[in-house]
């Protein structure tokens, strides 16, 4: 739509700006000033001059050159069909006016030639040929001038009218634009609110209703790795979990040994065997190898975090052997409808807080689905990664896995509060690479 309208608008605005300049000059010129072509030329933007050679007797066409102008369009130009049609009819009006203008031009030419006999000009193309004794304001010349004046003023009015209409439409567009942003915001807030309510209800239901139904398989369902912690031998490995009994059971990797165990691992990077430059669908479903590098999947992370309040623990190690961690007391990933929006808060740890607030409440973005806050591009495409990008990032644990420090675009795994990272001046200095990353979650209420 926008692309279709641009040439029309540009074309029309070129005509419209000529209204006050060109037509008033032409109108006053028709009453006598027009003869001084130097005056016309001093209207630097508008040029009225003969088109082609003109003999003494024949009529020759005149050409009017109108300056270009730029109209400011609203950013989000969500025009409706109606506006398009209005513009098209306006365009038609202007075209008619323009052809009327050409007609006028021809008549003006004639009157100029007559005027030149009394008011010599520098560029007088008819000099010497016209009779010096001929009176300039013969009755026929007066008729032509008056006719022209009428036409000109009619045109001027129509064009002014058209300009006013355009201005009115512009105001309407601005309003519509503001409105649609407002609506988006309101809907977003409502949906967030509703999702919160639904999550609360469904968690009440899956804990209480399931128990009430006393279906045995529900009773023994392991909702996440922490439900395996009463096993005699806590061993790291792949286990089945059912975070929501109405939904699927799926496999996860459980870290049953570190920091009290009971951790459900949602992301891990250990060897770079798996690319993290993936589509929305792949991030939704999950990819990789649960024993190696993997992303558990946004739907699963959503299910795991919606039924219980979860804490997130991030473990990072660089190739210099420095190990640090970041822990967030609150970690929640919304459903797909809300673009897997991230909520996290309550940092503690040693790695520094690179996630809050920059990535809090941000949507998930992949190279094929742009939900980031960067207006003129897709952070997921730029960094070849799926993440809760802002504009774009202060942390990206799904960046490319480099096995040693690298130069150039910072598309590797990144944690902005890491040691000495501020000395990595772009583009001269090397950037740190990370050897291992783990993101794992556990219920807030878990007691090892
Ligand atoms: C030109 O016209 C004006 C009014 O229209 C008149 O007063 C004047 O006498 C005319 N001049 C000549 C030379 O005809
Ligand atoms: C959700 O809506 C209810 C009722 O309109 C309101 O009381 C509540 O504060 C809202 N909650 C949030 C998180 O906006
Ligand atoms: C959970 O169930 C809903 C509704 O049937 C479905 O849309 C969603 O994909 C399921 N999630 C998982 C992880 O299976
Ligand atoms: C990511 O994958 C897409 C699709 O396969 C590809 O077009 C793009 O070049 C990749 N980006 C990077 C940084 O590797
Ligand atoms: C940070 O840089 C300083 C000076 O270059 C160095 O002495 C220190 O060991 C570095 N710290 C880490 C954790 O790399």
From TrEMBL:
Where's it found, cell-wise? Secreted
Q: Basic and acidic residues bias: where?
A: 110-130
Q: Which residues form a coiled coil?
A: 145-179
Q: Which InterPro entries match?
A: FIB_ANG-like, Fibrinogen-like_C, Fibrinogen_a/b/g_C_1, Fibrinogen_a/b/g_C_dom, Fibrinogen_CS
Domain (Fibrinogen C-terminal): give its ranges. 216-445
Cellular component per GO, a single term? fibrinogen complex
- Biased composition regions of type Low complexity, renumbered to the chain: 131-141
Concerning Pfam families, the annotation shows: Fibrinogen_C
- Main localization (coarse): secreted
- Signal sequence residues: 1-29
Q: Tell me the keywords, alphabetical order.
A: Coiled coil, Disulfide bond, Glycoprotein, Secreted, Signal
Biological-process GO terms, alphabetical? blood coagulation, common pathway; fibrinolysis; platelet aggregation; positive regulation of heterotypic cell-cell adhesion
Region described as Disordered? 108-143
- Judging by the UniProt lineage, the source's domain of life is Eukaryota
One GO MF term on file is: protein-macromolecule adaptor activity
Q: Which PANTHER family match?
A: FIBRINOGEN ALPHA CHAIN, FIBRINOGEN C-TERMINAL DOMAIN-CONTAINING PROTEIN
Q: What is this protein called?
A: Fibrinogen-like 2a
């Amino acid at each position: 739509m926008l692309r279709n309208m641009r040439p029309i608008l540009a074309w029309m605005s070129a005509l419209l700006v000529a209204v006050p300049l060109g037509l008033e000059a032409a109108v006053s010129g028709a009453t006598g000033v027009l003869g001084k072509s130097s005056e016309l030329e001093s209207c630097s933007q508008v040029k009225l001059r003969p088109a082609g050679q003109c003999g003494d007797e024949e009529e020759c066409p005149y050409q009017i050159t109108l300056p270009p102008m730029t109209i400011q369009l609203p950013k989000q130009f969500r025009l409706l069909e109606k506006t398009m049609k209005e513009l098209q009819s306006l365009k038609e009006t202007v075209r008619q006016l323009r052809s009327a203008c050409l007609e006028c031009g021809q008549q003006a030419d004639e009157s100029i030639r007559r005027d030149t006999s009394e008011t010599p000009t520098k560029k007088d193309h008819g000099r010497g040929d016209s009779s010096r004794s001929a009176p300039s304001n013969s009755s026929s010349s007066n008729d032509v001038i008056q006719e022209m004046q009428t036409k000109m003023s009619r045109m001027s009015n129509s064009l002014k009218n058209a300009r006013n209409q355009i201005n009115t439409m512009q105001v309407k567009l601005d309003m519509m634009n503001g409105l649609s942003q407002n609506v988006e915001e309101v809907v977003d807030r409502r949906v967030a609110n509703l999702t919160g309510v639904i999550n609360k209800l469904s968690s009440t239901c899956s804990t209480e209703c399931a128990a009430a139904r006393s279906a045995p398989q529900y009773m023994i369902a392991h909702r996440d790795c922490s439900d395996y912690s009463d096993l005699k031998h806590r061993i790291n490995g792949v286990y089945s979990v059912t975070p929501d009994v109405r939904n699927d059971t799926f496999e996860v990797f459980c870290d049953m040994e570190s920091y009290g165990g009971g951790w459900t691992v949602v992301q891990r990077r250990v060897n770079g065997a798996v690319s993290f430059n993936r589509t929305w669908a792949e991030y939704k479903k999950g990819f990789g190898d649960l024993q190696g590098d993997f992303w558990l999947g946004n739907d699963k992370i959503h299910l795991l975090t919606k039924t219980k309040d979860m804490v997130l623990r991030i473990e990072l190690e660089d190739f210099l052997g420095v190990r640090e961690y970041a822990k967030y007391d609150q970690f929640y990933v919304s459903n797909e409808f809300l673009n897997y929006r991230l909520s996290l808060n309550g940092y503690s740890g040693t790695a520094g807080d690179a996630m809050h607030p920059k990535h809090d409440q941000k949507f998930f973005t992949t190279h094929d689905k742009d939900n980031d806050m960067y207006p003129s591009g897709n952070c997921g495409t730029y960094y070849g990664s799926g993440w809760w990008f802002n504009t774009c990032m202060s942390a990206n644990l799904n960046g490319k896995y480099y096995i040693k420090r690298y130069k150039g675009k910072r598309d590797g795994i990144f944690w902005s509060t890491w040691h000495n990272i501020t000395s990595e001046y772009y583009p001269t200095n090397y950037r740190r690479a990370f050897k291992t990353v783990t993101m794992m979650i556990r219920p807030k209420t878990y007691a090892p």
